[in-house]
Amino acid sequence: MRLAARAAGVMATVVVALAGAAKAQEADSTGRYDIDDALRRHPHDIGELPTIEAARGRPVTFDLSLRGVYTTNAGTTPSDRIETGYLTPGLGVSVTPVPLMGWSVGAGAAIDGDYYNSDYDDQVGEGRLEGFVYAQRPLGSGTLTAEFVMLGVYADDFSEKDFHLAISNLTYSASLGPIDAELSAEYEHSDVPEERRTRLAALAAHTLAEPQLGYDLTIEGDLIFSDFNGGTNARRNDVTAALVLLAERELGEGLWLTWEAAFVNRFSNRERSRFTAIDLGVEISKAF
């Protein structure tokens, strides 16, 4: 009896320990959000916002895309990294901006999702629905952009909602000689307290003056500070640094081919929130 009880106690301890380890290694959605932000994958990214020139006279523009990515850390975890690939099909629609009281005002919406192989899809796959409005105006030598974004994150088949974000963002962008720079402040409110945070981001990018093998090459550095204020993440602070290389080529008739590579490292005062990742990807997109 004592031996059986002792064995049961040992088993219970092991189960609790394993459960704690599994919880510690859960995928961190904020890490993947920051990687996508550094690689300009979000539909509401300043560089992706609809413009009058890109619309070519259309009041509404649709965008179809398909991205393939290899990543060394799909779950953005400090250990037990998931090294794999995934596909991201997407469909977006944007309203051509119109002038309003000195501002250029536009809007857009998108649906996309990350689909991994069957071993990891349930763990890190996700679907996203996003809608946004924005206003831009010249300020000094640059441009001031104000955005409001509603982002819903779901299981990859959209059968279950994980959380939503209501994002308020203010960005100032300018060209300083050969360098394109951005400074932004953002607050992300969520129905899940652990997702709530303030983000401060800085970006510096340089695009080579001459195309290389038909591609426009851009080298970019990003630095993102996050201050969390909800749930178990309260008083958590992260600093994410990224080095990014982008190669873009217009194939004609609204078709674009983009290659991307990024090294991302996140420091944090919470050990479980630290990670390093390398992302390599290719995307083909068409506007019509």
Helix-and-strand structural type: mainly beta
Strand and helix order: HHHEEEHEEEEEEEEE
Number of helices: 4
Spatial arrangement of strands, main beta sheet: 1-2-3-4-5-6-7-8-9-10-11-12
Number of domains: 1
Per the CATH scheme, the topology name is: Porin
What separation lies between the terminal Cα atoms? Answer: 74 Å
Protein name: Transporter
Signal peptide: 1-24
Keywords: Signal
Task: Give an account of the 3D structure.
The structure is a single chain. With 288 residues, the chain is mostly beta strands. It has one domain: Beta Barrel (Porin), CATH 2.40.160. A 12-stranded antiparallel β-barrel has the order 1-2-3-4-5-6-7-8-9-10-11-12. It is 14% helix and 57% strand. It has 4 helices and 12 strands, in the order H-H-H-E-E-E-H-E-E-E-E-E-E-E-E-E. Strand 2 (84-100) and strand 3 form a beta hairpin. Keywords: Signal. It comes from Phenylobacterium koreense. This is Transporter. Residues 1-24 form the signal peptide.
